[in-house]
Design a protein that fits this description.
- By secondary structure, the protein is mainly α.
- The protein has a domain of about 55 residues.
- Helices cover about 45% and strands about 0% of the residues.
- The chain has 4 helices and no strands.
- α1 crosses α2.
- It is flat.
- About 0% of the residues are buried.
Length: about 110
């Protein structure tokens, strides 16, 4: 499926967000934005969006309506699939752990 939006199209920014900051915070944000080659507003918006997405992705509680709850239960009641590749991967030693025999003597 192709998009009808032109390349680089961004929705118009129609809502204003204001915040108070210390001069030091403003300077820090300006330096970070400049390091990424962008302006303060774009920097704050992109970093704020990332932070908001992380917060919402890490929620511990989800509220579902009756239909969504039923679908959730249907999905979770299916038997687990056999994944031979995953089983082989989990049987291999971790590349991040040094075997005890290879550790230097203290």
């Amino acid at each position: 499926m192709t998009s009808t939006k032109p390349q680089g199209h961004r929705p118009a920014r129609t809502s204003r967000i204001e915040l108070r900051a210390t001069d030091d915070d403003r300077d820090l944000l300006d330096r970070a934005a400049a390091a990424l080659g962008t302006d303060r507003s774009s920097f704050l918006l992109s970093q704020g969006r990332l932070a908001a997405q992380r917060v919402l992705a890490d929620r511990e509680q989800f509220v579902l309506d009756a239909a969504a709850q039923q679908e959730w239960e249907r999905i979770n009641s299916r038997p687990a699939r056999s994944l031979p590749g995953l089983a082989r991967l989990l049987e291999r030693p971790s590349p991040f752990v040094t075997p005890v025999a290879d550790q230097p003597q203290a």
